[in-house]
Amino acid sequence: EAGVAQSPRYKIIEKRQSVAFWCNPISGHATLYWYQQILGQGPKLLIQFQNNGVVDDSQLPKDRFSAERLKGVDSTLKIQPAKLEDSAVYLCASSLDSQAYEQYFGPGTRLTVT
Amino acid sequence: GDSVTQMEGPVTLSEEAFLTINCTYTATGYPSLFWYVQYPGEGLQLLLKATKADDKGSNKGFEATYRKETTSFHLEKGSVQVSDSAVYFCALRLAGNNRKLIWGLGTSLAVNP
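^ Those are the sequences you sent over. The predicted structure of the assembly is below.
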């Protein structure tokens, strides 16, 4: 079974530029999560989708971050414009549904904003 | 508010040593508790879980027991290997409709041969 795929693995941009991350969850998983993991901290949930609807985006900085999951499968997370404090690893995870105990994580995208 | 506190790292051990990584939590109701592991260059993986008080989760020689009286979920392994070197995260998920994971800061473990 293929795992959660993410791309790119690494990205370096200058502040005020824009960047997009892509995630393909495990086939059949209805729930998709985007997390931000700053070095030395635990993951912070940015947004949770159930199919193509948003369940929780309470910690998403909506002035600069946006995410979509148009067909209920893969998803993109965008930052525009980026700030220095956005430097982090962005993790995508999926689960069978919102009640499932296990979330399956992708390898993450390491973003450096200079 | 709801939170998870785990012991700070890094933890450095010799191969075959006994491992304990402490984790305590604060939560309303009856959360489920998890340990996730992040090996170098890889994504987070669920290591073990416990969904109710006195449950013991176990996997790959690791164990953790859900202790409601002490609000703890300490991770233990009797004999660590070099391949156990990773970052370990304790997390909880609240009962009810809000099933968001709440994470600890992670504990880095290095096992030397």
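Chain B touches chain A at residues 4, 32, 34, 41-46, 49, 51, 89, 91, 93, 98-101, 103-106 (CB under 8 Å). Chain B is about 0% helix and 50% strand.

Shout if you want it in another format.
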